[in-house]
Amino acid sequence: MRILRKKIAIVLFLAYVVFSLYAAYNVFFGKKVISRTHRVVKKGSVGTGSQSFDREEWNPWEEEERAESILLQKRRHAFRSYQEQIAKSRPKRYKVQILGKAAIGLYLWEHILEGPLNPSDSTGQWREGETQSGKINFSFYTGPAVVQGHVPLDTDSMVLVLNGREQQKILYSTQWLQYVHTLVQAHSVSHVAVVLLGSEQCTNDWILPYLKREGGFVDLLFLVYDSPWVNDKDVFQWPLGVATYRNFPVVMPNTQMVSSPRPYLCNFLGTVYKNSSRETLMGILKQHDLEKECVTSAREKWLPQETADTLRQYQMALAQSDLTLCPVGVNTECYRVYEACAYGSVPVVEDVLTQGACEAGRNSPLRLLKDAGAPFIFLKRWDELPAVLEKEKKMTQAEKTERRMKLLEWYGGFRQQMKDKFTEVLEEAFFKMS
C-alpha cells in the first residue's frame, strides 16, 4: 500500500513539473495571441515624424452593431416606401365649404347631399354638418348666427346659397357676394360657386357682373327655374325642392306608404288667387262633385309660415291621396311638386308657361324634371281633370302600388342624379378633375 502511494505521488509531481515547464515556455518563448473579447487598447498618442494619431478604444461588438444599424435603416426605408405607396394609391380628397344663406340650402344639404345637421333643432341659431360625396369633403354652415367674418374658413373653395326672389333678398345676397369678393382678393378663397333661388320670372340680371365670364369671381352658378342662361358650362339648372323654410321634413319611404290604400283620389291645399287657374280648378272640382273624393283647402292669402297643425294637415293630405294637384302660381315649378313626390302622391301638373323671361323651349316648363323622365301627369287645361280622375277610379290597388313605387324610386334617383352632378361639376371646375 505504501509503495502504491509513493508511485502516485511521483506521478503527480512529474505532471506538475511538466505543466510548469509548459507554462513557463508559453510565457517567455511562445507567440502572443490577443483574444477579441479581451483586447483593450488604451487611448494615447504616438508620434511618427511630425504627425501624431489618436488610438481609440476598440469596441468588440462594433461590427455586429454596424450590421444591425444597416439592417434597421433598410427596414425603415422599406416602411417609408410602403407608406408612400399607400398614400399614392389612396384617392385624394378635397374640401368645399357651403354657406347656406337661403332656405334652399337645406334642400341641397339634407335632401340632395344627405348630410347631417347639428343641432337637429330647426330653430338653432348656428347649425353645421359634414359629409362626403365623390372626392369632396363638404362642410355646411347655416342659421342666423352665420354672419360675415365669423365663419371658420378651412378651405379655399366655397359654395354660397342665396335667395334672389325679391329686392330685399337681392340686397342681402349682394352683401354676401361682396364679402366673399374680399376673401377672393385676399387670396383666402380661390373658387366660388353660387346656388341661387332666382326670380320666378327668370329676371336675374343683378348677379351677372359677379360671374367670372363677365369679369367677376363666381366660377359656377346653379340656378332655380328654366332660365335661358343655362348652358351646362358655368350655369346649371337646379331644382326648387321642398319648402324647407316651412320645415318640410326629409321623408323616408316605408312599406305602408307604398302599399296601403289611400282614401282620397287627390288633394289641393293652397292659396287661390282671383282670376287664376287655381280658381278654375276649384270650380271644376265643385262642378263635377269631386270635392268629397279629394282633400281640398283653399285660402285667399299666401302665408309664408306654416303652423304645426297646418303642416301636419298638409302632410296627411299628401300621404292619403293618390294624386296631388299642382296648378301654376307665379311659376309652373312649385314646392308642391317635390313634396308630393316625397310621399308617393303623383303630381298632376298644369303644364303651361307663365309670364316672364323663362325659357320657352321644347321641354319647358319644368325642363329639369322632364329631362329626368319625371313620371307625372301633365295637363294643359284643368277641364281634362275629370277624365283623369275617372281613369283613376278604375285602377286596381296593385296598379296604384306599382305606380307609387316607381314614383318614389324615380324621386330617389333624381336626387342622387343631382348629387352626382353637383359633385362632378365642382370637382371639374374647382380641382380640374375630369
Automatic annotation (TrEMBL):
GO terms for molecular function: ribitol beta-1,4-xylosyltransferase activity. GO terms for cellular component: Golgi apparatus. InterPro entries: RXYLT1-like (IPR055286), RXYLT1_C (IPR057538), RXYLT1_N (IPR057539). GO terms for biological process: protein O-linked glycosylation via mannose. Residues 245-431 form the RXYLT1 C-terminal domain. Residues 96-239 form the RXYLT1 N-terminal domain. This is Ribitol-5-phosphate xylosyltransferase 1 isoform X3. The lineage of its organism: Eukaryota, Metazoa, Chordata, Craniata, Vertebrata.
